[in-house]
Amino acid sequence: MENLKRLVGFIVIIFGFLGFAFVTSKNHQTAPKNKIPKIGLLQLMDQPALAQIQKGVYQGLKEEGFEKGKNIKIDYQNAQGNQSNLKIMSEKFANEDVDLSIGITTPSAISLADVMDKAPIVMGAVTDPKSAGLVTNLNKPSKNITGVSDQAPLDEQLGLIKKLMPKMKTLGIIYTSSDNSAVTQYKKFKQLCQEQNIKLKAYSIANSNDLNQVSQTMAQEVDAIYVPTDNTVAGAMSTLVKNANAEKVPVFPAVDSMVKAGGVATYSVNQFKLGVMSGKMAGRLLKGEKVKETPVEFIRHGDLTINIKQAQKMGVHIPDSLIKEAQKKGELIK
């Protein structure tokens, strides 16, 4: 009898130990689900359009239930236009083992892709993800990268320029030769101009230091200037506008924030909305959605932004129909 009691006691102890081990193991397995996720947010440089995208990212994350300082950690890094900084900051995210990263602009996304091969990467405003080598299939991303494209509505933009500049003989385009997005848009815009028998004269710069001299020459040789989605030119927009104004040559940029900085008008994708879309996508991925099931997203039609004061200064007549359109869907800057 005594031996039986001892045996029963031993069995109770064993089962108790196993039960404790099971609970401990289960808690250990579920703990990561309760941890606060951390994302790395990488931005190429300071300029108004990118600032709007960044704000939109925070809003999009919030709409998916992730609020900075409450239930998500965001490591925001700005490379200040330095490509070397992009590499260092991307490696920082990799070393921190972030749960997800967001690259605002093509160079930022490429830098992240070079060092992060497992955690999801969201492209925040990448013009042509395929030509940049970031994805091979826009509808079914095969790697760990998806996101949002800021491809400008080039047809709408060229149509607007033709409507506002009916006597235009030569249209100039200026872009940064090392900016993948800008080069891609230049090639597509060139094709459109050829199809519509519009004389296009191209001017490229290596960096912002070239902009003053190149834009001075350009303004003397063309009737209007088109600027694609180009972060370098956007960051020095005041220089381009100054030189264009001196020759009474209107500037038509691809981005609404560049219209506010002295451009005349454009049909553009809303930069804040691009950020919201990127943030919402990041939130869905953090909640378990798979990258391969998350297609790259686009905004198909642009909103009309008109700078009335600049148009008047350049002698560009804006039809009432366009003014009403900008007031209804877009922005009218007076």
Automatic annotation (TrEMBL):
Which keywords describe this protein according to UniProt?
A: Membrane, Transmembrane, Transmembrane helix
InterPro entries, alphabetized: ABC_SBP_TrpX-like, ABC_transpt-TYRBP-like, Peripla_BP_I
Out of the domains of life, which is the source? Bacteria
> Which segments cross the bilayer?
7-25
Question: What positions belong to coiled-coil segments?
Answer: none
Signal peptide interval:
none
**A Pfam family hit:** ABC_sub_bind
Please name the SUPFAM superfamilies in this protein's record.
Periplasmic binding protein-like I (SSF53822)
Name of the protein described by the UniProt record: ABC transporter substrate-binding protein
Please give the organism.
Pediococcus argentinicus
